[in-house]
């Protein structure tokens, strides 16, 4: 029986829609560096790509509206002396981007106004950094902006440290020391904690401003890299990695618990690393395999990942990026958009869409999204302030107006729903209280019982006669299922003779209960014992007569039931003898079946 029920979800039918080649980003030279990185990052305006270039490291910035085959020579963001390993966009300024390089430096860049890849002149001018952050002694493998505080950047290096930079002042105010190389890092939604995985197979949760880990757990046991992603405003962390048998796994962690919730879940035995991406608006986790073309997505519910579907493609991806929620197309019911690299030469957008035909804004699948206003400044964050950035109402974007800001609130869509669900509760409280009923209800008189049984017998007789008349006059094209008849009163209230012990001589204190008998048999003298005995004799005679009537009626009903059973057997035999038959025969048989059902009711 359990397999017949389907879990209700707004995102159960989400599907990934590929893009035709002419609407992709072609003629690229994506970096072939072996460092474990996503290669691309996206925001609502631009797409950054680690570039394969000579004479130092570089990356490209592609405006999202410039699709198709790009020019052979495009302006690059140059300045590093070694390969660029990672980039990250500023969450509150779409023109600011940070880059990490094999040269051990972190650079901050600003995309020029009206930036385009199509230049009029013969000579292409590259972009230079606006700020250089130096302090790491080995290569910098990851950079990640704080999602709540303005201008706070984390950089992870091969020197086994994570530095926290204020890019406004260029100072590294905090340092997190690791025992091994950091493989991935992810901020909590309020920017107070940082989750990291490292080569020593440990998952750590850092209180960044205390510069110490508050939790440390044994993670995935496999030798290959593992990844971690903080699940937005949920107090949960999702990790991907490998088992000792090199099976890809996924884990769900709650800070403070030493084991993943429900243990590790095995996915498959493919060798590529799983790159996790979390969408806080739909509570969905996307897993993109490096080296294969599949993108799985799960919905988080009741501390479990419920598998939704999988986008399959024959083109494997080495890198992938997901767009922030404020940049999706709300007119096409798009809930997420990914950009995957293919063959190191082009990038394909993949739109994850809820299939609906509605012509209006779908508020149930578009909760408010993080906007462009930080929750605090860098100084306030360093001083200990914590908060979540203000959100914007996506309906204002749907209508084409300026984004409407909504105060920051954890799970803003859940609280009104709970309040609405709880609101009608007080109105329903008085409903279950039943109306007062009398403690005693007088039983039906024998005359009423006799009349009800007689009416039931007449109904059966009328049904037989009317069914014969209908069979002669009805048309085959106008046959319809008869409306269900209410059960007769005699069926709902079984008639059983009252025991003689209940028939007692009337007394002055029980005149009300003796009233029905007086109404039926007339007033009897109250002081005469002979009159009382005559009354009892009459009652006994009536009960005997009633029992005889009930017995006769039961025999008649039994005989009718036998006739109905025989008629049903005849119909079945007729169906077998006739076979499929013509349309008229089938309709006649159907009519007989309907009459049988009516008779049985």
From TrEMBL:
<keyword id="KW-0677">Repeat</keyword>
<feature type="repeat" description="WD">
    <location>
        <begin position="77"/>
        <end position="119"/>
    </location>
</feature>
<protein>
    <recommendedName>
        <fullName>Coronin</fullName>
    </recommendedName>
</protein>
<dbReference type="InterPro" id="IPR015505">
    <property type="entry name" value="Coronin"/>
</dbReference>
<keyword id="KW-0597">Phosphoprotein</keyword>
<dbReference type="InterPro" id="IPR015943">
    <property type="entry name" value="WD40/YVTN_repeat-like_dom_sf"/>
</dbReference>
<feature type="region of interest" description="Disordered">
    <location>
        <begin position="421"/>
        <end position="533"/>
    </location>
</feature>
<dbReference type="InterPro" id="IPR015048">
    <property type="entry name" value="DUF1899"/>
</dbReference>
<feature type="compositionally biased region" description="Low complexity">
    <location>
        <begin position="438"/>
        <end position="448"/>
    </location>
</feature>
<feature type="compositionally biased region" description="Acidic residues">
    <location>
        <begin position="462"/>
        <end position="472"/>
    </location>
</feature>
<dbReference type="InterPro" id="IPR001680">
    <property type="entry name" value="WD40_rpt"/>
</dbReference>
<comment type="subunit">
    <text>Binds to F-actin.</text>
</comment>
<feature type="domain" description="DUF1899">
    <location>
        <begin position="4"/>
        <end position="68"/>
    </location>
</feature>
<dbReference type="InterPro" id="IPR020472">
    <property type="entry name" value="WD40_PAC1"/>
</dbReference>
<feature type="compositionally biased region" description="Pro residues">
    <location>
        <begin position="496"/>
        <end position="508"/>
    </location>
</feature>
<dbReference type="GO" id="GO:0030479">
    <property type="term" value="C:actin cortical patch"/>
</dbReference>
<dbReference type="Pfam" id="PF16300">
    <property type="entry name" value="WD40_4"/>
</dbReference>
<feature type="compositionally biased region" description="Polar residues">
    <location>
        <begin position="449"/>
        <end position="458"/>
    </location>
</feature>
<keyword id="KW-0853">WD repeat</keyword>
<dbReference type="Pfam" id="PF08953">
    <property type="entry name" value="DUF1899"/>
</dbReference>
<dbReference type="Pfam" id="PF00400">
    <property type="entry name" value="WD40"/>
</dbReference>
<dbReference type="GO" id="GO:0051015">
    <property type="term" value="F:actin filament binding"/>
</dbReference>
<feature type="region of interest" description="Disordered">
    <location>
        <begin position="577"/>
        <end position="601"/>
    </location>
</feature>
<dbReference type="GO" id="GO:0007015">
    <property type="term" value="P:actin filament organization"/>
</dbReference>
<dbReference type="InterPro" id="IPR036322">
    <property type="entry name" value="WD40_repeat_dom_sf"/>
</dbReference>
<dbReference type="InterPro" id="IPR019775">
    <property type="entry name" value="WD40_repeat_CS"/>
</dbReference>
<feature type="repeat" description="WD">
    <location>
        <begin position="175"/>
        <end position="216"/>
    </location>
</feature>
<feature type="compositionally biased region" description="Basic and acidic residues">
    <location>
        <begin position="585"/>
        <end position="601"/>
    </location>
</feature>
<keyword id="KW-0175">Coiled coil</keyword>
<feature type="repeat" description="WD">
    <location>
        <begin position="133"/>
        <end position="175"/>
    </location>
</feature>
<keyword id="KW-0009">Actin-binding</keyword>
<comment type="similarity">
    <text>Belongs to the WD repeat coronin family.</text>
</comment>
């Amino acid at each position: 029986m359990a397999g017949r029920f389907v879990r209700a979800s707004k995102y159960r039918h989400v599907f990934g829609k590929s893009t035709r080649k002419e609407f992709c980003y072609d003629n690229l030279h994506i970096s072939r560096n072996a460092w474990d990185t996503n290669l691309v990052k996206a925001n609502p305006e631009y797409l950054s790509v680690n570039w394969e270039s000579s004479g130092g490291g570089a990356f490209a910035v592609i405006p999202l509206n410039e699709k198709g085959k790009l020019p052979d020579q495009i302006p690059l963001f140059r300045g590093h002396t070694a390969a660029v390993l990672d980039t990250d966009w500023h969450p509150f300024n779409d023109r600011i981007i940070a880059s990490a390089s094999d040269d051990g430096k972190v650079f901050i860049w600003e995309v020029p106004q009206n930036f385009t890849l199509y230049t009029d002149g013969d000579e292409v001018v590259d972009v230079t950094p606006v700020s250089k952050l130096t302090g790491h002694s080995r290569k910098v493998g990851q950079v990640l902006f704080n999602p709540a505080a303005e201008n706070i950047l984390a950089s992870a290096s091969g020197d086994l440290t994570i530095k926290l930079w204020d890019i406004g002042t260029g100072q590294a105010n905090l340092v997190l020391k690791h025992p091994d190389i950091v493989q991935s890092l992810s901020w909590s939604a309020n920017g107070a904690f940082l989750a990291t995985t490292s080569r020593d197979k440990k998952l750590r949760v850092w209180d960044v401003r205390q510069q110490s880990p508050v939790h440390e757990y044994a993670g995935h046991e496999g030798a290959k890299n593992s990844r971690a992603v903080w699940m937005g405003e949920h107090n949960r962390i999702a990790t991907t990695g490998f088992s000792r048998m090199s099976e890809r796994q996924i884990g769900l962690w709650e800070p403070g618990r030493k084991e993943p919730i429900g243990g590790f879940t095995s996915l498959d035995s493919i060798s590529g690393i799983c790159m996790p991406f979390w969408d806080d608006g739909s509570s969905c986790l996307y897993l993109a395999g490096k080296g294969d073309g599949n993108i799985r997505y799960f919905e988080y519910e009741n501390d479990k990942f419920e598998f939704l579907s999988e986008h399959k493609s024959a083109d494997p991806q080495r890198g992938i990026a997901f767009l922030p929620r404020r940049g999706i197309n709300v007119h096409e019911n798009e809930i997420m958009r990914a950009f995957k690299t293919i063959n190191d030469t082009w990038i394909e957008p993949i739109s994850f869409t809820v299939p609906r035909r509605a012509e209006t804004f779908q508020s149930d699948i578009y909760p408010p999204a993080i906007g462009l206003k930080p929750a605090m400044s860098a100084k306030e964050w360093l001083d200990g302030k914590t908060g979540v950035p203000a959100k914007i109402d996506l309906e204002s974007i749907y209508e084409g107006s300026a984004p409407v800001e909504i105060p920051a609130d954890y799970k803003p869509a859940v609280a009104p729903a709970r309040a609405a669900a709880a609101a009608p509760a007080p109105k329903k409280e008085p409903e279950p209280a039943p109306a007062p009923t009398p403690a005693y209800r007088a039983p039906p008189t024998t005359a009423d019982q006799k009349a009800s049984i007689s009416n039931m017998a007449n109904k059966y007789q009328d049904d037989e006669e009317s069914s014969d008349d209908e069979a002669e006059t009805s048309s085959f094209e106008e046959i319809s299922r008869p409306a269900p008849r209410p059960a007769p009163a005699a069926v709902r209230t079984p008639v059983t003779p009252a025991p003689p012990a209940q028939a007692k001589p009337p007394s002055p204190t029980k005149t009300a209960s003796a009233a029905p008998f007086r109404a039926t048999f007339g007033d009897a003298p109250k002081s005469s014992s002979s009159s009382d005995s005559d009354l009892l004799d009459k009652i006994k005679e009536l009960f005997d007569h009633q029992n005889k009537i009930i017995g006769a009626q039961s025999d008649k009903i039994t005989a009718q039931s036998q006739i109905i059973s025989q008629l049903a057997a005849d119909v079945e035999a007729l169906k077998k003898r006739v076979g499929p038959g013509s349309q008229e025969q089938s309709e006649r048989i159907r009519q007989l079946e309907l009459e049988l059902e009516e008779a049985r009711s």
